[in-house]
Every structure is written in C-alpha cells, then in structure tokens.
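Morning!

This is the sequence you dropped in the shared folder:
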Amino acid sequence: MPHRYTPEQIDFIREIAPGRYNAEITELFNTKFGKSLTEGQVKNLKANRKIKSGVALKRRTPPPKLFTDEQESFMREHATRRHMQELTDILNERFGTSFQPDQIKAWKNRNKVSSGLKGSEGMPPPNKGTKGVHNVGGNKASFKKGQRPRNYMPVGSERVNTDGYVDIKIADPNKWRGKHLIVWEEHHGRAVPKGHVVIFGDRNPRNFDPTNLILVSRAQLATMNKRHLIQNDAELTKSGVILADIYHKIYQRKKGKKQ
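The structure's back. Tokens below.
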C-alpha cells in the first residue's frame, strides 16, 4: 500500500529539496515529523510530485565548511595587524557566532593568512584595556577635559561602521549601537535576550522594516551560517531558522547514540 503524505509534509519536502541530496532531505523530514522514511521513499515522493533538488548526481554532499565564504573573506580582510583574540572577537561580533581563537588559528595556518605581527599571534596588544596617560601612543590627539573634537557627533546621529552596518549614537562620549537592534527592541518592547542576535532576513543591512529583522540565538545563527540558510528573502530565512532547529535535533540525537 503506497505511503500517504499530508499537504504539510509535501510542502516541507518541496521547500527544503533545492540544493539538498535525498539523504539529507530524508533525515530532516524524519526528524520534523517523527517518521522513518527511507531515501528510496523520499526519492519516489519527489519523482511523483515532480520535485527536483537541482544537485549533481552523487549520494551525499561534502561535509560543510566551518566558515562561510563571507566569513573567510572577512578574516582575510581584517587579519592584518590583529592578534588572534581580537580577530575572533570582531568575527563573532560581525556574524553573531561563537568561534574560538584556536579555530581561527587553524584556519589561518591552513590558508597561510598572517597578521604580520611576528611572534605575537594570540597575544593582546600592550595597551589593551588602558586609556588616558597610560595608553601607549594614544594621547597624540587627546583633548582637554570639556573640549569637544571638531568631528563630534551628537547623540542620535547615525553612521555606517567599517562592516557596513548602520550605528546610532546612544550616549556621549562615543557610545554607539546597531540601528537594527534598536529598531527591533522598539518594535517588540523588550531588549534583545542574552545569547541572541538580530539578523537581516533579506541580507540587506539597510532594510530596517521590523518584519525583516529576525531574532535568532547564537547557536541557531552558527548553524544557519554553516548550512547557508540565510537567504535574500526574509520568509525563506525564517524557514531557515526552523531548519536550524531541526539540524540541532539531529545533532543531539546522534550525540546521544554515541554516548
């Protein structure tokens, strides 16, 4: 007797099939719906419904890279004159990830990317955490107390930071915050929860429509970056959040079997 599928199950297959092999589709489907379909059944379902993945004819996708192409480009661009911890911090801040310095170091070694710091990789700069007269080389452009620099910007001003994101000045002397975070909090009436970030659903850092600003956990975002689940369409990216949770369930299930 042929297997019967609900409209929800068929729509799910149709949504996740592009770019995925049958093995991965089967695992995602079974995890979401609590089923035990085989790859052959999924293959037949796709054929009967004329659903195509659009991938090369091989059994499985290669294992995903730890970093996305965008993250690798970012590290290449920002590695010069930055120690390992600093590069890790700005990478995690930019992408909302939780990479560790040893992961960055391994990637740099594999790809022959150097900071040019000669023996100081992984060491903080001597003036890190210092200010005023104790900040080595940091007083050349200092101003007397009460004197504002000529490039002073009042609270409420906007700027585009070095990563291309819009910041809003929220306090003097120089405290800024991402505009997308402020817009999200104003719309939802609460602060962004700890361990979460706000991403642009269509990848456009100038689209501040509240429906385009999506709250995700850092764990979800790490999976979405690894699995390329952030699209150029907010609705598809929201579906990517759901898929990220399914991948996490798959990981937990496999981890439990190994223990």
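Headline: Residues 141 and 147 are 12 Å apart (CA to CA).

More detail when I'm at my desk.
O.
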